[in-house]
Amino acid sequence: MIEAAGLTKRYGAKTAVYNLSFQVRPGTVTGFLGPNGSGKSTTMRMVLGLDQPTSGRVTIGGHPFRELPNAPRQVGALLDAKAVHGGRSARQHLLCLAQLSGIPARRVDEVLGVVGLQDVARRRSKGFSLGMGQRLGIAAALLGDPQVLLFDEPVNGLDPEGILWVRNLMKSLAAEGRTVFVSSHLMSEMALTAEHLIVIGRGQLLSDMSVKDFISQNSADFARVRTPDTEPELREKLTAALIEAGGQVLPEQDGGLRVTGLPLPRISDVAHDVDVRLWELSPHQASLEEAYMRLTQGAVDYRSTADQRIGLHQQVPAGYTPVGYNPADSWGAQAAGAPQPGGGYGQPGAQPNPYAAPQPQAPPQPPRSPAPADLNKRDNEDAR
Amino acid sequence: MTTPNQQQAPQEPVPPQGPHAAHAPQQPPAAPAQPYGQPPVPQGPPPQQQWQGQYPGPYENQGQLYGYASPIPVRQANLGDALVSEWTKIKSVRSTMWTLGVMVALVIGIGLLVAVAVGAQGNEVHTPLPSFGFFGVLLGSICVITLGALTMTSEYGTGMIRTTLTACPSRGRVLAAKGLIFFAVAFVITLVTTTLVALMHSALLSGTVTDAADTGAWLRATVGVSLYVATLGLLAMAVGTLLRHSAGAVTVMLGVVLLPLVLGLFMFSESLEKVREFLFLYSIPSQLGGFYGTAVGDEGPTGWTPLWIMLGVTAVVMGGAYASLTKRDV
Fold first, then answer.
1. How far is B164 from chain A (nearest CA, A)?
2. Staple partner for B82: which of A98, A135, B40, B177, CB 3.0–4.6 Å?
């Protein structure tokens, strides 16, 4: 059981973690999510007593880590795969840790076998790949056979087989009644591994609930509707009718519509009432990835932007807008409920939403953006 | 591995704040046929089977639920464990071999050169016989300083320190174990080397050097010098703990060794006469010379005094290192 209460960490003027309170319970895998720089690693270091909290406290089984009796036998941690002396062999690295913790030396060969490094045990860890480093780090965490395990990004650099192995390992460790606390930014991985999620953004708690609750609370399921491509006016007609019926409609790149706020039968009824044929009407369940993106949108510190290539692209005649290019057309923009400066949906030339995170599922932008749109975008970014 | 009970767990929404005890006791003791999941490489039966017989399963203790209890016997780790661990660490990295190897080569090589040079000139020399080891030890001490600094800073440089302090949260124990093991290694190697050089000089130069050397002089030139050099390395380790940077710590220590003499050379002014005198007398090379009776000035520390000075300085810096290790974030 890991308990944090009002955990706060400041580095000078920057607050890395602010007023974080959570519990990590035994018997389940608890995922710890957040964008880069959101304070996950800082929190993990505070749990392990490596960093002192500015205020608040975090305990393991009721004790601060540094006052735990037999700490290495109660808590195992993988903080950083590269936190080993590269000149030392894998076996010797684990051996010195085992000796430091009063663990029998034969346990070293056991954990080397568990992580599959027995063949390279006598090689210096400097030459290890990132995946092998992760395995060595996991071996070190398992060394004391502890009841509380912390893993910071354990699947980084692992091959698919290794990812599957880590996933099963986490689950089996939790099934033995241990407390397993895993940080990651890979949503898809956490969806498969964790049962409980703690999400932080900019060092603050955003969510603390089960994976199932997390998905249903943080994402709206939507319906995909397609009208015949041959008759564009039907699409506008249906859009108007659906909005009138209380739904929210977002046009998609390929001419389809994303409808939220209306059940599928109702959409069908509305379409029937306005005499529009449908080519597609399908339910879509939002993934954990989408739920996470929605939640952390406002809390992303490092955001990538489109490469503008200003001055490199050819001048396009003013007023020209390529068909199908709509910067506002992004699920993230709609999902955030951000005001749409352009007014309606799908209007050519609508301004991009500066707060929309680049979405994995967002349509790829045309390689050469028209100059007017570029200028708009830059003005918009400067304004914020 | 997963019991049916746990397989259902993801399906039913667990109340986020509900007490864990509500559903955990239902878990039957998991029979660890393979407690750690599938090893990626197919292999024979895992050797952890040998502890299976003692596996106690989840149990209640003073009303608090422990979800998992390790079958491996739990033993409170102590300073002895940390010493064994540090011994494994220091002998399993190449920097130990390199620095100490170069040190031995320098001390013996320079000792040999001095012996040859003194022997070749033919005249009688009125210097105590053991003192010819001084030049080699002066250079060799730089290697010991480097190793001392690296003992601590390499852990910071590689991030190993976080792993170490997770395995042993007691900063004092880690620092003490590192210091003791390093001191022992540096002392033994220096003692063996200086003794070899002393024997060599005794054999080669007994005809040329007529000044009789008493037992005390021989002891100072071997044991005393070795203790002094090992303490100097310990000082470097303390500086390394404070700075957490290999190059920084070694550079600072080289400055500590060399700068007083160099600064003293440039203090021509009358008003600085006292300072200059002090820098000359108490600079580390002249303290080292004190062991051999060849200090720069006559009033400088002689006999065993340099060792007490160095021990005092090191104790103070080591105290600072301990405070830094305890207070600062790793």
1. 7
2. B177
